[in-house]
What we know:
alpha+beta, 6-stranded mixed sheet, 4-stranded antiparallel sheet, 9 helices
Amino acid sequence: ITVIANTHRTSPDNRRDPILLKNLVTEAEERLAKIHDKRTAEGYADKLKALADSIDHNHNLEGLLLFVNDSVAEAIRIPVKVTDRVVIDGTFATRDLIRAPHQQQSYYVLVLSRQNARLIEASSDRLVGEIKGDFPMDYGALYTTDKEALTKAKGTDNLIEEFFNRVDKAFQEHWNKQPLPLVLVSEKRNHDHFLKVTDNNRIIVTLDRNRDKEKSHHIVADAWPEVKEAFAQKNARRIEELGQAVAAQKCLSDFDDIWRAVREGRGQTLFVQVGLFQPAKIDGDGILLLEEREQQSQGFIDDVVDEMIEINLRFGGDTVFLEKGALADFKGLALTVRY
């Protein structure tokens, strides 16, 4: 069972969140009663209600996901808007978890100087929060007793790069848990030193500024225009890839063809319109699209698009989420194939 709800960060909007969540849990409870025996349905429903009751809505982000099965009862907050829904299927509905790190508005800001480092999470022009624990990190803990080395430029450079290496390792810990693009805010003289010790592919924007003492929300507001442009360019490149695949006859847009291709491991990139959901039934090797959700039955898929995303990822493919209109010629879904 997956329950997906839009939530709010601040009061008074977040006062409505418990009501919405309760309604979605009630919907899940009613659907469970239709497809399971009374004892099984009540067991799942009780587990789901207990999880929902444990949520502190004072800490909500834009989206809230509840996952429940025989061995799991977990809630996850994500910083992207979602479509309110209940999914009861053989697997969890993980599309929004996949979408969150790819959503163009979410990113980290690393404020780096030769004295300290701060790590900030942002969404569009909004501050999500300044990350604590390993950060802020202070250069003062790093020192050498070799006074001669300190009088040489190379010795100083080595110490700076050692500090930056420690910063990068601490950042990597956060990135592993939530992989988001990185904005580096630092004086230009530090850029080359940091690039020696980090994975350059994570950095989408570098800003030549010293913001050591500035408030987090000011840093995010200043960075956002350049970040927005970087994301727009990235999306344009991905859409260009789609156009090239169409020209090379390596693009599919029919749901049934896409279903077969991803299951055969031929999928490369799945392009999905944000907000596109499609119930379906398995029909042999293919699928039959349904106008609306039906009572659960053998071969029923609550959202075949979510299934396609998961299958394609298992075979090493990736997913690009685009806003409504960008995939109008493809009815909201397209797949580039390897062969």
